[in-house]
């Protein structure tokens, strides 16, 4: 019964970020519309759907192996909180409080049911994944700093949702894209779910930015292409299977 409760609650949480108050699907639906700031809409939509909603869906589908989902939710909560402070977007704490509460309830139910969402397993560092993750840290963190600075300027080219400036959420997404691949590179149980989600978010954000280079929050064309390339390499490294060399014949 407890697992059923966890599944139902996780589905409700996922819907809340997909529709209301998360606006995930709604924002993604206008990323190709000339009436909206496409890149900023994509950033909010990706954070709400690919990062948060997908994590709750994973909990609902397989609550007994929910460590990657819980880790993603914790990182998303922390990133939103940091973004609220550095972007001086105090209204963002409403989303922080909502996500923190949802994560705490879902995680608490799993633990009370005797389900350890952090099972004792080997760390399992992936060196190729760590290299790719480190390559993205400086660009993504620089982008986060830029978005937070833009938010503090209260720019007129942004969009406001529930009294929250989209620039602040854009900075939170960039911070998430710094942290998730690093976590996945250091802990084997985070793979492949966590880095695959990060690669999807980075790829789509780069694609929208490439299509709308003059949109608020957009990269240059060069950096848009770089974000797409980084996302594809991250995905390839995550899904690559090590090839074992055939044993050499014994020499008599």
What this model shows, in words?
This protein has 252 residues and is an all-alpha fold. It has one domain (2-114, 122-239). The chain has nine helices and two strands. The protein has helices at 2-18, 24-28, 38-61, 67-86, 93-112, 127-152, 166-186, 193-211, 221-239; strands spanning 160-161, 164-165. The protein has a two-stranded antiparallel ribbon. Helix 3 packs antiparallel against helix 4 and helix 6 (127-152) packs antiparallel against helix 9 (221-239). It is globular. The termini are far apart.
Secondary-structure map:
Elements (H helix, E strand, L loop, with lengths): L1 H17 L5 H5 L9 H24 L5 H20 L6 H20 L14 H26 L7 E2 L2 E2 H21 L6 H19 L9 H19 L13
Antiparallel strand pairs: 1-2
Helix pairs in contact: 1-3, 1-5, 3-4, 3-7, 3-8, 4-5, 4-7, 6-7, 6-9, 7-8, 8-9
Brief summary of the model shown:
By secondary structure, this protein is mainly alpha-helical. It is built from nine helices and two strands, in the order ααααααββααα. 68% of the residues lie in helices and 2% in strands.
List the defining traits of the structure above.
252 residues, mainly alpha, two-stranded antiparallel ribbon, 9 helices, disordered C terminus
Treating each run of at least 4 consecutive H or I residues as one helix, how many helices? 9
Helix-and-strand structural type: mainly alpha
| Shape field | globular
Major sheet attributes:
2 strands, antiparallel
Strand line-up of the largest beta sheet: 1-2
Rg from alpha-carbon coordinates = 19 Å
Distance between the termini: 64 Å
Number of domains: 1
Work out the strand percent. under 5%
- Which stretches are low in confidence, meaning pLDDT under 50 for 5 or more residues running? 243-252
Q: H/E series, N to C? A: HHHHHHEEHHH
Instruction: Bin the helical content.
Output: 55-70%
Strands, count:
2
Mean pLDDT across the residues is 91
């Amino acid at each position: 019964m407890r697992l059923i409760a966890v599944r139902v609650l996780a589905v409700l949480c996922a819907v809340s970020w997909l529709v209301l108050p998360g606006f995930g699907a709604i924002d993604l639906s206008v990323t190709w519309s000339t009436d909206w700031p496409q890149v900023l809409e994509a950033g909010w939509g990706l954070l709400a759907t690919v990062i948060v909603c997908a994590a709750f869906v994973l909990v609902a589908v397989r609550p007994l192996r929910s460590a990657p989902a819980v880790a993603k939710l914790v990182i998303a909560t922390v990133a939103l909180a940091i973004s609220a402070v550095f972007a001086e977007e105090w209204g963002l704490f409403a989303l922080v409080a909502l996500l923190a509460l949802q994560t705490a309830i879902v995680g608490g139910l799993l633990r009370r049911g005797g389900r350890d969402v952090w099972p004792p397993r080997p760390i399992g560092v992936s060196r190729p994944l760590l290299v790719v993750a480190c390559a993205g840290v400086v660009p993504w963190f620089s982008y986060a700093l830029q978005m937070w600075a833009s938010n503090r300027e209260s720019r007129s080219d942004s969009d406001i949702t529930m009294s929250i400036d989209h620039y602040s959420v854009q900075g939170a997404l960039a911070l998430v894209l710094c942290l998730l691949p690093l976590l996945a590179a250091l802990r084997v149980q985070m793979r492949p779910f966590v880095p695959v989600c990060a690669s999807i978010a980075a790829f789509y954000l780069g694609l929208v930015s490439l299509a709308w280079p003059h949109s608020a929050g957009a990269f240059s064309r060069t950096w848009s292409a770089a974000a797409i390339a980084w996302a594809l390499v991250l995905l390839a490294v995550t899904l690559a299977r090590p090839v074992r060399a055939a044993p050499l014949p014994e020499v008599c």
